[in-house]
């Protein structure tokens, strides 16, 4: 019989602390009543209200377009940046770049949002709206993509690249035939992680959004300020399911990538 560990109790406590409010929110999204004081019976009326809200669906479409576009651009730039870092010969410069990349990852969202606000208001002077939100989401997604792609680059078999160079392959051929096929898992992982961050982001978006454009997270915050509605519960439940699906896709891609690396190691 296994001995009970304090670490297991701590883990259970953390999971309860994180997921109990979410479970409570989801449970009352099916309440036939109009508040979370008592459960009046099972009903899908609040979900029906969400699907009937035309303005809300425009915001949902805007959020999805923003997430896909910012993630795609960030993935392209982040992949190019990761390849550039991989080929850097100066070890000190490489470490400094990676340190700057890590700083962007751990920087508080409020500070990042305030920085973008100053940038777009006083330095570049871009009208607040879709473009400012898009640029901000691209900026904070690039470090995520770099961190996802770099480990795949370091796992590359350098002898394949050297052999291709000896056979006279151009840099484009090496990139297209050797590097990109071997880091596809990391690129896709970076894309889905960037998409998840973009769809869920509130703090940065709140600072740089304008009156003519908003995202789902900012809209939920605005509605909560006017009073708790179970329509918000239903909407938050749908967002939670979408985020969960993205995490599952990320997990499947990671598992396939790990299995591919193990098979390649056995074959070598």
From TrEMBL:
<keyword id="KW-1133">Transmembrane helix</keyword>
<dbReference type="InterPro" id="IPR035906">
    <property type="entry name" value="MetI-like_sf"/>
</dbReference>
<comment type="similarity">
    <text>Belongs to the binding-protein-dependent transport system permease family. CysTW subfamily.</text>
</comment>
<protein>
    <submittedName>
        <fullName>Putative spermidine/putrescine ABC transporter, permease protein PotC</fullName>
    </submittedName>
</protein>
<feature type="domain" description="ABC transmembrane type-1">
    <location>
        <begin position="60"/>
        <end position="250"/>
    </location>
</feature>
<dbReference type="GO" id="GO:0005886">
    <property type="term" value="C:plasma membrane"/>
</dbReference>
<feature type="transmembrane region" description="Helical">
    <location>
        <begin position="178"/>
        <end position="197"/>
    </location>
</feature>
<feature type="transmembrane region" description="Helical">
    <location>
        <begin position="234"/>
        <end position="253"/>
    </location>
</feature>
<feature type="transmembrane region" description="Helical">
    <location>
        <begin position="9"/>
        <end position="30"/>
    </location>
</feature>
<keyword id="KW-0472">Membrane</keyword>
<keyword id="KW-0812">Transmembrane</keyword>
<feature type="transmembrane region" description="Helical">
    <location>
        <begin position="130"/>
        <end position="150"/>
    </location>
</feature>
<dbReference type="GO" id="GO:0055085">
    <property type="term" value="P:transmembrane transport"/>
</dbReference>
<dbReference type="InterPro" id="IPR000515">
    <property type="entry name" value="MetI-like"/>
</dbReference>
<feature type="transmembrane region" description="Helical">
    <location>
        <begin position="56"/>
        <end position="88"/>
    </location>
</feature>
<dbReference type="InterPro" id="IPR051789">
    <property type="entry name" value="Bact_Polyamine_Transport"/>
</dbReference>
<dbReference type="Pfam" id="PF00528">
    <property type="entry name" value="BPD_transp_1"/>
</dbReference>
<feature type="transmembrane region" description="Helical">
    <location>
        <begin position="100"/>
        <end position="124"/>
    </location>
</feature>
<keyword id="KW-0813">Transport</keyword>
<keyword id="KW-1003">Cell membrane</keyword>
